[in-house]
Amino acid sequence: MNSNPLSAKPHYPILDGLRGVAALMVVAFHIFEAHAASRFEQIINHGYLAVDFFFLLSGYVIGYAYDDRWNYMTIGNFFKRRIIRLQPMVIMGMIIGALLFYFQDSNLWPHIHEVPVWKMILVMLIGFTLIPLPPSFDIRGWVELHPLNGPGWSLFYEYIGNILYALFVRKFSNTILSILVFISGCALMHLAVTSPNGDIIGGWSLESEQIRIGFTRMMYPFFAGLLLFRMGKLANVKNAFFWSSLLVLIALSIPRIGGKENLWMNGIYDSAVIIFIFPLIIFLAASGEIKNKFSSRVCKFFGDISYPIYITHYPIIYIYTAWAIDGKIPISKVYPISILTFLSCIGLSYLTLKLYDIPVRKWITKKLT
């Protein structure tokens, strides 16, 4: 028996697998996005909601991993463990983004070749820290917090959620936490319904409205996940991985709701999925068990690559998007290239996991603990 109270707890294998399912849907969403004339025609239309699913899943797992440890764990211990878990792949994502940056020069980003190497390297080094970059450091043209690797924006808000939890929210009673979740849910619904685009897409820029979107997208799901862990009484759900995965696929693939004339309808869908459907999915997944080796291996593989593929795939997507838009190529004519791009993202994530992330985290853990 392990007597170390801070040793890693057993994982929820189905939750790990679900994280991988959602991450793969993000990659597919971004590939289809390169060919979409507008957000109304996007295939896997609601793939952007995977980020909100990740936030909710993170809140649940944070509660499971740390809620009962604060009698013998310091805030410093908590942050050290979270940095060891998240930061190595943040750094690798920025390095990959830097290595592929000049290959993304295109009509979509026509000034990439004008960016001096020193400025690109500076952006990379700042990106290692996840400190948001102001528009003056926008070396791409999309005004991203991290222009070498766009998905870094969600890790920035992930860290904010962790900081709020460690400093304040872990001390909240379930009643106070419920009030916080309720207010955050109302803010999320207001954002979704009143959005000029009829969705909650955004959060990746250092502009006031984008900052509001980023905070709103993080606050409800992250702390709703924590509340779900604290209050949820798990059932015994058979075939939980199949049913929860199916629900994730359906929720993210539903076509645009309402059209251009009724933007609020899609906002209702977005908020309903985040507020009700995602917690249900996580409840089902946490209530299930893996009872055969094949499902166990699938869940482990999906869970292992989930974070690496999310944080490393977008530099490849930048290249694919530039190529697709420059050539005005419909998705129907390039399925082999699209599939190759999808598989390349998986392969890159697996290589970075095995050759970098696992050994680096083991080395850091050995040195710091």
Keywords:
single chain; 369 residues; mainly alpha; 12 helices
Describe the protein's architecture and organization:
The mean pLDDT is 95. The protein is mainly α. Helix 1 (13-33) packs parallel to helix 8 (240-253), helix 1 packs parallel to helix 11 (314-327) and helix 6 (174-194) runs antiparallel to helix 9 (263-286). The protein has twelve helices and no strands.
Q: Main beta sheet, described?
A: none
Low-confidence stretches: none
Oligomer: single chain
| Radius of gyration of CA atoms, rounded to a whole number | 20 Å
Strand percentage: under 5%
Ends: how far apart?
19 Å
Give the rounded overall mean pLDDT: 95
Total of DSSP H or I helical runs spanning 4+ residues: 12
Question: What percent of residues adopt helix (DSSP H or I)?
Answer: 55-70%
- Category from helices, strands and their pairing: mainly alpha
Output the helix-strand order.
HHHHHHHHHHHH
Total beta-strand segments: 0
